[in-house]
């Protein structure tokens, strides 16, 4: 037998030994030892449990570092921020939630706070200044470098809930008379030398700083080298916003036109800055949170970390309003006190009528508030929306009313009471749907946030109407 044949036979013998069934010794199984390397198991993700310190800080994404930082005590936060570079601190603090970053910046040494703000994008730095008390803000602003102070203070003057308040002023601004190859050279130099935030587009402005056109970087890169930018732009319409445009409207426009950024102009058409899609994502998140909290009368910027005294001051006024509304609803019941005394079953059934009307109204309320948030309605569309909700409420009321009529009849054996119960419930569901669609429109008309405590007003309407309709019909058809 040749050496090659012996080697092949030996390999086959080893393979058969490894795949053979385990031998039985007594009652125990003996498995052959397999020394072959095993596939390495996937490492378990442990980023949530990482101990963040100055040694590993630059290995963690700023957003993750912000999450870790928020779990620390204030003393630990201060010690860690003081041990890392202002650049790393700026990137992380920009990602933190508002209450955390405001308290942290306020408690840091003013010199370090100023250094950190100088490393932030100007719009983020202006947002932080808005979150501070006057004395804290002045202490930090005095220590900013002159050029940084001018840029940050320029943005600070704008309302933080408008396009001017969320725009960024570090952008690619080009002369329309540049050629494509000159523009590419200029862009490369600007990105290397300046702290420009995500250059999605280049903005062409004339000698008066008025916006002429917007070009994507792709258009410039793919253009012929000698072609002028003004010719490359053509006559395409420019979608822009004014500096005082509400941030929700800015978010709506970016979503509508699928843009990554929108230019911000003054009333003379001069270019001021740009709102980018990452800013809009933050806006939409904040607005959704505010709407959800506002619907129930909680503080619109409240979190589980908000000081309890502040939460009480935000919630208590609306709870007092709710008490007043409950007294109004109770006064309706008191008006029918004699009817309830004659038939105790009315007291058992009337909460069902009120609650079901409230549920119907809450559905309409949620739909209308969402609609107003993403696409404000004109008068005609508003009337159509109210009519639609009324039809839905009426149909749901008919179905639920018939089911409740059958259930009430089976339970009480009183056909008149069952009919009154079903009819009152159906009517209150219709009324709740109409009220739920009208309340946000009325608040919007009055210049108020449609989401703010709207459910409190809705509950008052459906409770009062439900009690009045049910007890009134019972008095007329059952007790007279």
Automatic annotation (TrEMBL):
Annotated SUPFAM superfamilies: CBS-domain pair, MgtE membrane domain-like, MgtE N-terminal domain-like
Entry's transmembrane regions: 390-411, 423-443, 455-479
Short name of one Pfam family: MgtE_N
UniProt xrefs under SMART domains: CBS, MgtE_N
CDD domains: CBS_pair_Mg_transporter
Keyword Lyase (UniProt): no
Gene Ontology CC, one term: plasma membrane
Bilayer topology annotation: Multi-pass membrane protein
InterPro entries: CBS_dom, CBS_dom_sf, Mg_transptr_MgtE_intracell_dom, MgtE_N_sf, MgtE_transporter, SLC41_membr_dom, SLC41_membr_dom_sf
UniProt entry keywords in alphabetical sequence: CBS domain, Cell membrane, Magnesium, Membrane, Metal-binding, Transmembrane, Transmembrane helix, Transport
Residue ranges, compositional bias (Basic and acidic residues): 1-21, 28-41
Domain of life from the UniProt record: Bacteria
MF terms (GO), sorted A to Z: magnesium ion transmembrane transporter activity; metal ion binding
Cellular compartment(s): Cell membrane; Membrane
Region annotation Disordered: where it falls in the sequence: 1-45
Main function: Acts as a magnesium transporter.
Family (UniProt): Belongs to the SLC41A transporter family.
Identification of the protein by name: Magnesium transporter MgtE
Organism this protein belongs to: Oceanidesulfovibrio indonesiensis
Lineage: Bacteria, Pseudomonadati, Thermodesulfobacteriota, Desulfovibrionia, Desulfovibrionales
